Amino acid sequence: MGGICVKPSGGSPRERTSSKLSSEAYVLQSIREESFRLKNRPEVRPISVDKKPNSVRRVRDDHFEKKKEGSEVILANIPSIRTIPKATEGEQVVAGWPSWLAEVAGEAINGWLPRRADTFEKLDKIGQGTYSCVFKARDLTNKKTVALKRVRFDNMDSESVKFMAREILVLRRLNHPNVIKLEGLITSRTSSSLYLVFEYMEHDLTGLVSLPGIRFTEPQVKCYMKQLLSGLDHCHSHGVLHRDIKGSNLLIDNNGILKIADFGLASVFDCNQSVPLTTRVVTLWYRPPELLLGATHYGVSVDLWSAGCILGELYAGKPIMPGRTEVEQLHRIFKLCGSPSEDYWKKTKLPHSTAFKPVHPYKRRILEAFREFPLPAVGLMETLLAVEPEQRGTASLALKNQFFTTKPYACDPSSLPHYPPSKEIDAKMRDEEATRQREGERLEKERKESHIKQHAILKGSKDGRPMRDSYSGPLVAGNKYCEISRTSKEDEIEKKDVSCSQVRKDEVDHDRHIQEAARRSRIEKMRVGEVEGKEMVRNVVYPSSRLSK
């Protein structure tokens, strides 16, 4: 495989917020590298890539790198993204499309007209992804609610535009009740941004699962899984890998219809292709072991693994393998699903197999871990969560599994309960609100405890102990000192164990009078310029003889 490459980021997976930006750049570059190779194949179109002056183009060929200077001819592995004739490109620009889009990804917009931004009214932000933001909006022309997805890309970088256009091409290729429908694009001839217009969906699976008190019944779980696998079967039969199946990308409307969304990491694939693919796809909790081990040749099995994780999540009410790092995620997988056989390690020779191969093989314990789940559900999970990809089968075979053919059958989507609008962003807001509420309760409890302690101190002063004064300083009582501070706590006072019973009230009043007189004197001197500086030493006791001067 050949590809234009840059120095990869040393960041962690995109789930780690500490190095999010560098990780995003690495993922984006990894996906771009899928678009190039150095082998002659008839189904791909050659394009010329010119080297900038005084620079060197780096091209990776198989397992080593070669430097080639000047212009290179490479082959783009995106058979559906083609340059359109100049005449058509000109027509698209005249029609209102920006030239940066018409020149690079004309086929993605072929036959469409751009929508104007002023024909939509933004309402609320309903989603935030790695490469996009999603808004709820009102289509003023068609009088309906839609979702607007603004994709992050650099319109001055042709490869970034191609990466963005790939999602449009994939969506235009698919047409299924369980796949989100692209309804249009918003841009203009002078615009540097692009919005994708989608049908509006009230919920996503993550939001519903996180609703307090929500537990899906077996017919409801079967209904959602049947729709998910039907959508995946359509994608796979049309040569599309989604590569990011997770709860927040499974949208649900008020009629109970589930639709697979967010094809930003999707790729067109061929079962017989030998082109390496990137491993930097699929959110960590739903990522299969072969990707964690560095596999670059994979197929529909990666989406089926994610579907198995979703099945477990629907019953458990939470993610079943929430690892924090790639190493921890792989460890969780092996502990639950068992480690691969010795033949698998020898056959695949994955890049990270030496580093991550367990010293002692793990036993498979899915049945034990999920013994509270219905047996047919555990049986389907056993298939979808097979550590060896070829054992997971296909989405079509999964739909024929005993899980769907035994009672109770999947319910009709229209019979599903009507829930309040709930998306992943709503779940995060609920979690943040709960955290704020707990923090408020903690602070209120501390305030009450502090009030009780202060009350006890004041009450104790009536029994012979002095009240706390309005200043911090020593009270002189014969040869004894009693440290009294307005910021001291009762327990700190008690630890000193100093008897203040000999301090008479008139001595306390006299000392206070001296302190106040000293302050007034210094303030007066500052006013007439005799004292410079802004800080005053509050705890110095001045002799009374100086006050007469």
TrEMBL record:
Pfam families: Pkinase. The keyword Transit peptide does not apply. Residues 120-404 form the Protein kinase domain. This is Protein kinase domain-containing protein. It comes from the Eukaryota. GO terms for cellular component: cyclin-dependent protein kinase holoenzyme complex; nucleus. It comes from Lactuca saligna (Willowleaf lettuce). Residues 1-22, 414-453 are annotated as: Disordered. GO terms for biological process: positive regulation of transcription elongation by RNA polymerase II.
